[in-house]
Amino acid sequence: MAGFKTLDDAGDVTGKVALVRVDLNLPMDGGRVTDDTRVRASAPTILELSRKGAKVLLLAHFGRPKGQRSSTQSLSMVIDAVQDVLGKEVMFVPEVSGPVVEQAVGILRNGDIAILENTRFWPGEEANDPEFAKSIAANGDLFVNDAFSAAHRAHATTEGLTHLLPSYAGRSMQAELEALEKALGNPEKPVAAVVGGAKVSSKLAVLKHLVGKVDHLIIGGGMANTFLAARGVDVGKSLCEHELASTCEEILDAADTSGCTVHLPYDVVVAKEFAANPPSMRICNVHEVATDEMILDVGPQAVEALADVLKTCRTLVWNGPLGAFETPPFDAATVALAKTAAALSKEGSLVSVAGGGDTVAALNHAGAAADFTYISTAGGAFLEWMEGRVLPGVAALEA
Question: Which of 178, 240, 175 is nearest to 1 (CA)?
Fold first, then answer.
């Protein structure tokens, strides 16, 4: 990854208008924000610019309004949550460019903060229309991108503005990029990757990319069933994409060629019905799964062996749970391995980077998230980065 400019390079920002791209696409329930994690992620950037005397204009999208105004997707809905996190009053501006924004800038004092309206109300945002980007840039002096989660989109407020104003990575974006560089860009070896989740089809590109980059690939979740089936294991009525057997073989062959060890479970937790603590639950060898049973988690022996693998590694990238973690007791493998990774990270022998919505939920459930080196709140952007793709919003910041 090439170098990128941070707020340290922005110089004196007193009285300057900072256009700051943040992620305010917050989960809501009946008009109330239910999780302010993304606001908290950008708070250090917003407050630093405010403290340094900039006039801070926040740019963000909310939902998928498809270029149309919609009262239920206005960013005015999240203003209370933003004010609560920042501990400061925030002005709402119902436009993103033009005289209304110009007027707001005139009213704002140095250090004041405003949220502009949902950028996706204008078709020019998702089209990355240069004229639309110019109209927004006209009211700003510098651009700060602090939304890694939107960096895989080449939109006007993630990529377009970087061509028009001096551009910098915010603190959250900076931390994300530095963590990702440590994890896969230039990692300390040996490197392990845990990839879980329901379907191989959704993570094909990730798996293909990782076998060439990591020393150990640990496959869990429903995906592991597809790999087991490809190796001739009868997985009963487990979730499985049988049509992907040849693709799994290709991935396993590629791993062999590049010296990557693929770890599939050899003991598993099965049940006849998918419910919490079902009476039919048992632990067995993968070759003993009955035709009316489904695999719902990795077994304890395999987890112990995987913990031993992590103890030999210096770097870990994690995306996706090992089992159906939302339904106990099928959370046991994810919780146990997450706790091992957290303990190794805490003692300083492992750099651990995790990302994706399910993953963050699983690590929080395991009580392990706090000790991971870095947790990315990005979903799509994190996956695309794991696929080795160039993220337009990041590439645009590179010096």
Answer: 178
Tokens of 361: 């939920």
Q: What is the CATH number of domain 187-386?
A: 3.40.50.1260
| Domain 7-171 identical in fold to domain 187-386 | yes
Sole residue written with tokens 């998918």: 274
What is the C-alpha separation between 42 and 147, in angstroms, rounded? 8
pLDDT digits (tens, 9 = 90+) for 242-289: 999 999 999 999 999 999 999 999 999 999 999 999 999 999 999 999
Which residues, at least 6 apart from 212, have a Cβ–Cβ distance to it below 8 Å? 254, 258, 260
**Residue spans per domain, the chain:** 7-171, 187-386
Q: Other CB atoms closer than 10 Å to residue 366's CB: what's the count?
A: 20
The CATH topology of domain 7-171 is Rossmann fold (3.40.50)
**What are the strands of the beta sheet with 191-195, ordered from one edge?**
261-263, 216-219, 191-195, 315-319, 351-355, 374-376
Which pLDDT score is estimated for 62? 94
| CB-based contacts of 223, cutoff 8 Å, min separation 6 | 195, 196, 197, 198, 199, 200, 203, 320
The whole-chain average pLDDT of the chain stands at: 94
List active site positions: 38, 199, 357, 380
Nearest-angstrom CA–CA distance, 24 and 57: 13
Q: Where are the alpha helices (DSSP H) in the chain?
A: 37-51, 79-86, 99-107, 123-126, 130-137, 171-180, 204-210, 221-230, 245-258, 300-311, 332-346, 357-365, 380-386, 392-395
Smallest CA-to-CA distance from 22 within 150, 134, 141 is with: 150
Average pLDDT over residues 334-339: 97
Taking the model in full, what pTM does it have?
0.86
